[in-house]
Amino acid sequence: MNSQQPDSFDEQLSAYLDGELDDADRRRVEQALETDADARAALHRLRQTTGALKGLPRLPAPPSLVGDILSRVERDHLLNDPRTRGQRGSFSFRRLYPLLAAAAMIAIAGTVGLWGILQSDRTADRAVVIATTPADVPAADENTTPLVLGERTQRTAGIESESRPGMKSKSETAVDSASDLGIAAKSSSMAPTTPTTNPAGALNGSTTDPAFPTGLAASTADIKSLGTVTLTVQTSNRSLDAMASGTQAQSERTIDSPTDASAAFVLEIFCNSDSFLDHSERLASADPADKTDSATMTAAAQATVEPSRFGPTQWGSPNWYSTGSQRVVERIVTLPRDQLPAVLAAIVADGAAADSVTLSAGGILLASGSQDALQLASIVAGVDRVDSAGDAPDSDKYTQYGQTFADTRRNGPLDRFLQQLAIPPADRDETIISTAGTPAPAAAATEVAGTGGASRDGDSVRGRGARVPSTVVGDESRPSDAPSAEISPESAFEPDTTVYGDTAGMFQSDDANVTAGGVKARDHVESRIVLRIRLIGPPLVPPPGEPGRLSPR
Amino acid sequence: MEVADDATLVGQVQSGRVAAFAQLVRRYQDRVYNTCRRVCGNDEEACDLTQETFFKAFRSIGSYRQKSAFYTWLFRIAVNLALTHRQKHRLRVVSQLTDDDPLSIPVAGSQAVIGGEARAVSVETRECVSAALASIDADHRAVLVLRDIEGCDYEQIAGILDIPKGTVKSRVHRARVALRDALERRGITNDERDMAT
Known about the structure:
A: alpha+beta; 2 domains; two-stranded antiparallel ribbon; elongated; B: mainly alpha
C-alpha cells in the first residue's frame, strides 16, 4: 500500500472497487494490487463491507403509501392548480388556501359534515351575490342544458316569498344570479342519456367516462378534459313536528356519496328542501291529525324496526326523529362540455342558499361548509366569485341530545357508512335500485317488506331490507329476497332515475302515508338528487390570461 | 403497452396531467422509501418522508428543468429530507434501536457470514449490518445507501447530495471504513468475513 498517502490510496481503492477511476488511475491501482499484499487485503475488506450492504434486502414501500401520496398530491393539486387559482377581482385563491386546506384536512379526517343537522328555520339571512360576466359563461342550450335546479329554484322562490313577504328570498337571489348567467330553466328538455355501467363497481354504480382513471383520484385536468361530473344535491325536509311547534328541527344525513372515486367532481349541496323540492309544502298541507310527535314515532319505531345496520340509532332521545327517511334519485344527463360552467354556476347559485355544501373530487372531500366549497366550485365553474354575507355560523355544527357539536362527527352513521365502502361491493350492506332508462310506473300502493313492516299508500316507499327486483347497476348486484316495491320517481326526474334504498336503515317515505307499527310516519324526510352529467365535446381549457376560467378548446 | 420515460411523464405533469405523476410515484416509491428507511431507521418515519418527498417533488416540479435526471432530483429531495429529519430526531432514533427493532444492535452469532458482492447473508447478519449502518454518521450512511444499496454512481451521488464528485469519492471511502469498524464492533470480524469470502 502506498504508505505516503494512505488515505488517498484507500480512496482510490474504494473508487476502483466502484469502477469510478479513469484509465490512468485504474492502471496505477492495478499495478499496486499486483505487488502489494496490503493493498489486496484492503481491497478485500472493502469488498466485504460493500457486499454486506448489497446483501441487505430492499425494503418495499407499504402498499398504502402510493394511495396516500396520490391523495395528498391530488388534493394539493385541486387546491392549488394555477388554472383554478382565483385571479379575478378581489378574490385570491391563495389567500383562501389556509382555510381551504384546513377544511380539507378536517374533511379527510372524517370530522366535517357529510351529514348534519338541518335547522328548519334559520334566522340568519344570507345575501349571496355571484358576480359573473355573462359573456364569460357559455349560453345555455335549450335543448341540452339540464337546468332542473333553475326550474326548481324558480318554483320554490314563490314559496319563500310568500313565507317572508317583502324579503328577497335566498332562492330568489339564486334565481337572479342564475338569470344573470343567462341560464334558462328547461328541465323538460333534457338530452337523451346513455348510461353506462361502471365496471369498477363504484358504490352507486355511477356512469363513468371509460377514459377516466377509476380508482385514481381525479385531477383538475381530468375534470376539465374528460370524465363524468357528478353534482349531488342533498335536501332535507323539516319535520312536521318542528313545523308545527316552531321548534328547531333536527335531522341527520345517513348516507352520502362523495367517496365515489369514479366521480371526477362532486359538488354536494345540502339544503332545506324548500329550496329544491316541495316535500315540505306537501307535508305542511297534510292533515295535522296524521302527524305524530317524535316520542310516539320513536316508540313505534323501537317496537317495530330494527336498529340501523349502520349502527345503533339514537333511540329514546326526546328530540331525535328516529323515523327519518331518505330518498335518493339520480338523474343522468348528457351535457356538452362547454356548458359545464353554466351548469356549475347554477348549482353554485342554488347552493348559495344551502345549509351546507361539500365539494369532493375523486373520492376526496376537499371542502366542507358553504363558503369553502362554494368558493372552490365557483372557481372550477369559472364563476367570478361567490360572496356571502352572514353565512350561517352553524353550518358545520349540529345538535344532538341537547348538545352542540362542531365537526366532531366521528363514528356517526356516515362514518359507518364510509366503512362500508372499504368492504368489497358484493359484501356491502346496501341495496341499489335502478330504474334508469325505464318509464316511471304509475303511482300505486305497494306493500313494503321492510323489517319494520312499514307500508305505504303513497308513491315511493321502501322498507329496511327491502329488495326490489330492478336493474342493478355496477357490482352492486344483490339478490332479490323480498317482495317488490314499485318505485315511482318524482316526475321532474323521470325517466332516468336511480334510487338508492335503505339508507336510513328503517323505512323510507316522501309524502306517502307510511306506517310503522300502526303509527303514521310523516315525520322526517330527506331527499337527495344526484345529477350525473356525462360530458361530451372538446376538453375545457382556460382562455389565455384567464387561468381560472374554462372555455371550450 | 409502451412505458413512458421519466422526462415524458415529467412533461405531462408540468402540463397539468396529474395522472402522469402517479406513474412516477409508482416507479420510484420503493426506492425512495428504501432510502429513507435506511437513512432514518424507522418504518413510520420513512413513510412520512417518502410521502413528503413526492409531495415536495410535485409542488416543485414546475421549476424542475430536467437538467439532471428526475431520479437524481427526486432523491436529492428525499435524502435532504431524511438527513434533516435525522438531525432533528437523532436522540429519538437512537433510543428506538431496541432489541425488537430490525435495526437494533445484535451481536453476530457464530453463523454470521458476510458474503461477497450481492451474496445473500443470514437474517442475523443482516440485522447486524443494518444496525451498524444505523450507527454511523448520517452523511456517511446516506452516501453508502446511495452507492451500495441504491447503486448510484458518483456522478449521481454528487448531484443528489449537491457536493463535488471528489467529495463523494472520499466520503464513500470514509463511510466504508466507518461501517467496517461498526461491523467489527458488532462481532463481525475480519476473520469471519474472510471465512465468508
